[in-house]
Amino acid sequence: MQLNRKSSGFDAFLRGEEMSNSVPELDDTRNGFPVGSRVAFHATMQSLLTYPNSPNHGTVGYVVRVHDRIASTLPGNVWVKWDDGSFGMFQTKHVSRVASHRSRRAFNISFSTESLEELSDEYMIHTASTLVHKAKKDLWSFRKGEDGKYVIERLFDDSGEPVKV
């Protein structure tokens, strides 16, 4: 077994190392739920006892990315912005993908583009991995996808609201 040699941000802080403020490079498909995926909540005895404010059974929402290094990297969990307005981190065993004839992700949460230059009318580069929407002043992360396109994902805070600059 090979150990992950990457230090956590907290370890780096304790050693006095300089820490980056950029959004971490994450594999958002690690749990099978990429950002922008539609998911539904499954109300079972276990899931209802796990969360203080569980959504109703069958409530549908979007998987979102949260601008928080610790919360964003917890394995087996996803952040969901439910259609009823509620928001939270949920274990992947308590949600499932919503069957759809189209595998389209919500454009207001995630999209892809061939070039960042195509976005220059609406977005400007903020850091090495984030963009700012010029009109709304909210943060979006970007990274190169496996297909060579840039994946652009809206960032949310831990209350479910878009992160603003």
Write down the CATH class of the domain at 38-97.
Mainly Beta
Residue-averaged pLDDT: 75
**CATH domain topology of the domain at 38-97:** SH3 type barrels
CATH architecture descriptor text of the domain at 38-97: Roll
Distance between the terminal alpha carbons, to the nearest Å? 42 Å
What is the overall shape?
elongated
What is the helix/strand order?
Answer: HEHEHEEEEEEEE
Commentary on this structure:
This protein is mostly beta strands and 165 residues long. Among the domains are: 38-97, Roll (SH3 type barrels), CATH 2.30.30; 110-156, no CATH class. 10% of the residues lie in helices and 31% in strands. The chain has helices at 9-15, 45-50, 69-72; strands at 38-41, 60-66, 77-82, 87-91, 95-97, 110-113, 123-127, 130-133, 139-144, 150-156. Strands 1, 2, 3, 4, 5, 6, 7, 8, 9 and 10 form a ten-stranded mixed beta sheet that branches. A hairpin with a 5-residue loop joins strand 8 and strand 9. Mean pLDDT is 75; it is low at 1-10, 18-30 and 101-105.
What is this structure's SSE topology?
Layout: H1 9-15, E1 38-41, H2 45-50, E2 60-66, H3 69-72, E3 77-82, E4 87-91, E5 95-97, E6 110-113, E7 123-127, E8 130-133, E9 139-144, E10 150-156
Parallel strand pairs: 2-10
Antiparallel strand pairs: 1-2, 1-5, 2-3, 3-4, 6-10, 7-8, 8-9, 9-10
